UniProtKB/TrEMBL annotation:
<keyword id="KW-1133">Transmembrane helix</keyword>
<dbReference type="GO" id="GO:0005886">
    <property type="term" value="C:plasma membrane"/>
</dbReference>
<protein>
    <submittedName>
        <fullName>LHFPL tetraspan subfamily member 3 protein</fullName>
    </submittedName>
</protein>
<dbReference type="InterPro" id="IPR019372">
    <property type="entry name" value="LHFPL"/>
</dbReference>
<dbReference type="GO" id="GO:0007605">
    <property type="term" value="P:sensory perception of sound"/>
</dbReference>
<keyword id="KW-0812">Transmembrane</keyword>
<dbReference type="Pfam" id="PF10242">
    <property type="entry name" value="L_HMGIC_fpl"/>
</dbReference>
<feature type="transmembrane region" description="Helical">
    <location>
        <begin position="26"/>
        <end position="47"/>
    </location>
</feature>
<feature type="transmembrane region" description="Helical">
    <location>
        <begin position="98"/>
        <end position="123"/>
    </location>
</feature>
<keyword id="KW-0472">Membrane</keyword>
């Protein structure tokens, strides 16, 4: 007795479809995890006043971040800081002002992207992948 090839092909096709769906869900979960990690990084960069700096022993000790720059006073005891997120004109240079605006927009877009991941329950997964993908492209530029 021989097996008809069309039935064998149909069962193999359903097996491939099940494997594809399983892998697509795993990719969706992985994408969500990486999106949350990226959101944490962007929010920390935006919120932290200063995150790059020198040690106490280096010459010209100071530190700066996206919207605040601090330097030591000559006596070495006090730190003078310039820039406040609430006062946009106090940010030291126009380049840092522009970077603050772009990172702020990036924070808003990536948080919206995380909220859009709920759409997996409503829409087809490829639609949600396209929406979130384009949001992340604009977030990263």
């Amino acid at each position: 007795m021989t097996v008809d090839p069309k039935y064998e092909y149909a069962s193999e096709s359903s097996l491939q479809h099940a494997n594809y769906m399983k892998n697509s869900k795993a990719i969706g979960v992985l994408w969500g995890v990486f999106t949350i990690c990226f959101a944490i990084i962007v929010v920390v960069v935006f919120i932290q006043p200063h995150w790059l700096g020198d040690t106490q022993e280096s010459r010209g000790t100071g530190h700066f971040g996206l919207w605040q720059a601090c330097r030591m006073v000559q006596d070495g005891q006090d730190v003078i800081c310039e820039g406040k997120l609430t006062d946009f004109n106090s940010i030291p240079t126009p380049a840092f002002r522009a970077a603050t605006v772009f990172i702020g927009l990036s924070v808003v877009i990536i948080l919206l992207c995380i909220c859009c991941m709920v759409l997996f329950f409503v829409f087809h997964s490829s639609t949600v992948f396209h929406i979130c993908g384009w949001m992340q492209v604009f977030c990263g530029e």
